[in-house]
UniProtKB/TrEMBL annotation:
GO terms for biological process: transmembrane transport. This is ABC transmembrane type-1 domain-containing protein. It comes from Lentzea guizhouensis. Belongs to the binding-protein-dependent transport system permease family. It is a multi-pass membrane protein. It is found in: Cell membrane. GO terms for cellular component: plasma membrane. The lineage of its organism: Bacteria, Bacillati, Actinomycetota, Actinomycetes, Pseudonocardiales. InterPro entries: BP-dependent_transpt_permease (IPR050366), MetI-like (IPR000515), MetI-like_sf (IPR035906).
Length: 290
């Protein structure tokens, strides 16, 4: 027995609600620019390394719209190239945490018993630490670098997804269509993947957008401390850190990458809010397929 979703005919689609939401008007263009900048980053390797020794720590000008850094490198080019790191954090780190956390939450919530107790105690232990403190611990153990920073962010984000999914599954597993599937001999993996997981998609989408903003902030903090992106690869957190030593002579070096971090985090948070409201307003009615 499988399940489907049926929405009342008078309800507008979720995408229609997003088109009417002013938060989405801000979030979607910003995130689109972020993706386009990340796509352009591989073609900017030469421009990222190019230096203008006659314009060190220069302010915005026609030649360098956002100014230059202490080595004469164009800040605009480096901000655009740094978008690739941000997209990697939002996709790789959060995506890995989404997959692992969802799997653990499904198993813990559906099986219950000692499996649930063991998994949730480990999860609670990880959640007891502040996210950045735990990420710093993982990176300190693995060593600095973007790859290790992505692993650290995935590790500290996974328990959040696991706890969320487990709570949702505890509610869904008592539904009559889940009980009927067990009675007719449907296997546990099929129930988890085909019966329970589809009903978690909306909740996971909203939560992933929220966690993407948190992960981006964590990566920027790690890079600011020298544990994330390593020079000469551009990263927004590292650019803010290098600019703090030159605030008296070049405010642009820290302000523009910091503004990029702020706008990206705000865009993900606003998108999550808009998605939540749209999905709540048009939440489907669950019914079994006969």
């Amino acid at each position: 027995m499988a399940t489907t979703t049926k929405s009342p005919p008078h309800e507008r689609p979720v995408l229609g609600s997003l088109r009417r939401d002013r938060r989405a008007w801000f979030a979607l263009p910003v995130l689109t620019l972020l993706v386009l900048a990340a796509a352009a980053a591989p073609f900017l390797d030469a421009a990222v390394a190019d230096t203008d020794t006659d314009r060190l720590l220069a302010g915005p000008s026609a030649a360098h719209p956002l100014g230059t850094d202490e080595l004469g490198r164009d800040i605009l080019v480096r901000v655009v190239a740094g978008a690739l790191v941000t997209v990697e954090v939002a996709t790789i780190a959060v995506g890995l945490a989404l997959v692992l956390g969802t799997a653990l939450g499904l198993v813990a919530g559906y099986r219950g018993g000692w499996v649930d107790s063991v998994l949730m105690r480990v999860t609670d232990g990880l959640l007891a630490f502040p996210l950045l403190v735990l990420a710093l611990t993982v990176v300190a153990a693995l060593g600095p670098g973007l790859r290790n920073a992505l692993i650290a962010i995935a590790v500290v984000t996974t328990p959040r997804f696991a706890r969320l999914v487990r709570g949702e599954v505890l509610s869904l597993r008592t539904r009559e269509w889940v009980s009927a599937a067990r009675i007719v001999g449907v296997g546990t993996p099929t129930i988890l993947v085909r019966h329970l997981l589809p009903h978690l998609a909306g909740t996971l989408l909203v939560f992933a957008a929220l966690q993407a903003s948190t992960a981006i902030m964590a990566e920027a903090a790690l890079s600011f401390l020298g544990l994330g992106v390593q020079p000469p690869q551009p990263g927004w957190g590292g650019m803010v850190a290098s600019g703090t030593a030159h605030l008296d002579s070049s405010w642009a070096l820290s302000v523009f990458p910091g503004l990029a971090i702020l706008l990206t985090i705000a865009a993900f948070n606003l998108l999550a809010d808009a998605l939540r409201d749209a999905l709540d307003a048009h939440r489907p009615v669950l019914s079994p397929i006969r």
